[in-house]
Amino acid sequence: MKRISYFPMYIIFVLLVSSSLTAEWPQFRGNTAQTGVASDKLLKSLKLLWSYDTGAEIGSTPALTNTSVHIGTEGKKFLSLDILTGKKKWEFFSKGEISSSALVLEGKVFFGDEMGYFYALDEVTGKEIWRFEEKDKIISSPNYALNGVLFGSYDGSLYFLDRKNGKLLWKFETESPVHGSPAVFENSVIIAGCDGNLRFIDIPSGKEEFNISLESNIASSPAVSGGQVFISSLTGKFFSADIKDRKIIWNYFNKENDQCSSSPAVTKERVIFGTRGNFLRCLNKENGKLLWTFTAKEGIDSSPVVVESKEGETVYFGSSDGKMYGVKTADGKKVFEYDTGSAITGSLSVSDGRIVFGTSGGIVYCFSGKKEK
Q1: Which among 23, 27, 179, 220 is placed 20 to 30 Å from 99, CA to CA?
Q2: pLDDT for residue 10 is more than 80
Q3: Measured between alpha carbons, how far is 68 from 83 in angstroms, rounded to an integer?
């Protein structure tokens, strides 16, 4: 496997402290392990707090800080909105459409576009700090480790850039486009793509440690929990792999054989993901047995998020039928539904008692499950 290195020496790990890290959802899936589980609670019934019309289709997922919502659109526009009021703080125009979800870290906002540009903007002003150009579109959402930022590209590569200046530290080449976002586990970055391999790459060196063949095209992003990796596929299979033993523990194959680009939410006992066959499925984390299925009216590309609510532990997600749903993780019983009228293909983000997401109609919605001042 080819690896092109621009990494002159071993990077010493430094503990990074930033005000942005106090946010509960500063990146896709909420954390570097990409588990999709929120740490806070919704103490009250969800009510619409505000909505904002961006004027362009939204397929990305918002990044949330204590004060702002950061989200990109397919109209080549990236926006920062006030999280309390929905009022626009600033906007930035990119070279290409934006499907990549943002990472907010150390006062910067990182994201890619479909023209192959990767940006770092000032979190407060929206001014460009640096820009990196590669060969193909970037759908993958960024993650971070050490002093760098990680993302995949349709040129088949995983990139590791210096967060401070955008310098290429290393580049790892796979055999096919990398659509999903990389997960971080200890000193390893985990990716999967259209070549059907689950790859584990050493972050300091950029060298592949090992890979596991899934024999399935992958468009989703891996989640890491309890020393295991969980990931869905476009061939109807869902996998659990043990990192230490370097092998598949179990796989679930749905009889409908429906495609899945939804990334899983992983709790202590359950793994939950959506499919394009209109299903939200919940599996036993230990053995992959199906616990329950919820059926929407159209496909579910949106990746589910889990949060504690008035109704107990609840999973929230969007569907191409235009609805945001909430169902109990215990039994799949529906406890919430809101019709936006436009497809929801991006994922929901949760922070400080609020849920935020965008739609294909270009509207950003913010729901509150807390007492607002």
Answers
A1: 23
A2: no
A3: 5
Residue 2 lies inside a defined structural domain of this protein:
no
271-327 pLDDT tens trace: 999 999 999 999 999 999 999 999 999 999 999 999 999 889 999 999 999 999 999
User: Domain range spanning residue 250?
Assistant: 34-368
On whether residue 226 sits in a domain, the answer given is: yes
Q: Residue 287: inside a domain, yes or no?
A: yes
For Cα atoms 83, 86, 42, give the angle at the middle one, nearest 5 degrees.
45
Cβ count within 10 A of residue 297 = 10
**What is the rounded CA–CA span in Å between residue 143 and residue 118?**
13
pLDDT tens column, 35-73 = 999 998 999 999 999 999 999 999 999 999 999 999 999
Residue 347 lies in a domain: yes
Number of domains in the chain: 1
How far apart CA 361 and CA 322 sit, in angstroms, is 9
